[in-house]
Specification:
globular, three-stranded parallel β-sheet, Exonuclease V subunit gamma, 59 residues, single chain, 2 helices, alpha/beta
């Protein structure tokens, strides 16, 4: 399965809203607060994304 790397919240939203992430795995490498992570995970089902993970380098 392919994994798409998102470098910013903007790149995630742009790709998700244009349905480029449907059926794929997504890994977010930008610093994301807990509210942003929760919001992104809420949209996982709507945009039909298999999995969403976040880098732990900023934790």
């Amino acid at each position: 399965m392919r994994t798409i790397i998102c470098n910013s919240t903007q790149s995630f939203w742009d790709m998700a809203e244009n349905h480029f992430l449907r059926g794929l795995n997504v890994h977010c490498v930008f610093p994301a607060s807990e509210p942003i992570r929760s919001l992104i995970l809420l949209y996982q089902e709507q945009y039909q994304i298999n999995t969403i993970t976040f880098t732990e380098a900023f934790d």
